[in-house]
Design goal:
This protein is an alpha/beta fold. The protein has helices at 2-5, 23-34, 53-64, 90-93, 102-107, 120-127, 139-150, 177-180, 187-212, 218-228, 235-245, 252-260, and strands at 39-41, 48-49, 70-74, 77-79, 85-87, 117-119, 152-156, 161-164. A 4-stranded mixed sheet has the order 1-6-3-7, with helices on both faces. Helix 9 packs antiparallel against helix 10 (218-228) and helix 11 (235-245) packs antiparallel against helix 12. The longest helix is centred in the C-terminal third of the chain and has 26 residues, at 187-212.
Amino acid sequence: MNIISEYKSDNIIVIDDSYKNLGPAQSFLRLLEYADSDIYMFCDQDDIWLHDKISLSVEAIMRFGIENSILYHSDLVVVDSDLNILNSSFMASINYNNIYSLKDYCLQNYVVGCTMAITNSLKKSMLKNQCFRSNIAMHDWWIAIWAKCFGFVIYDSSTPILYRQHCSNTVGVTGGGFISKLFVNKLSDNIAKIANYKSLIGKQACDFIQCYNSELSRVQMNILLHTSKISKSSWFFSFIRCFLYGIRFKRYIMNILFLIIPPSIQ
């Protein structure tokens, strides 16, 4: 903290608190509570913002209306530590479709936080319910679900960010995302990843319902309720009901794995 405090200035605020290590998701959301601006962007680690990153984000939001609750996000180029290109289009690698719905977002996040820009209207509306959010998978995923329910999601196919990946990244992707990593390690590790992922999805949906219960439409509530039950004792039949309701992965291997692997108990 002594070293960090040396960077204090009129434009840089250092927050000294007693929260200890909140983890990435809670840390970003906590920072939003302290910040005050018209538009917010998240600068993660050592990603490289190209010259038009900020202007593209701001111009897109201004065209749509800055007074609205808007989440803007874009594509990105995935590079290694030495800036060699690993994937020229991350969104193409996951077959992203801009018309994905809340049903899709409940099972998988399609918004990469370092490309994201959100309006003050979104931030204030999202944070006005000071609920207990202990099971948020990641801040960008939580914000994306909120925007799908109550705001607007704008996608830009431009690639104004070099998304740098190291072998030691705490959070990140090299191209295929979470699913592509499932078959890299031994079977027991992969089963544990699926179990944890499944548990996290269900618990995140539960937390979202608790936070925004009174604001959700009947359709949104049904989607989140279906999703929340896949982390409970009735997980097998719950995921079958999710699948029939249209809450399913685009890759059928993931649907099969979710049917045969129980959620982790935490």
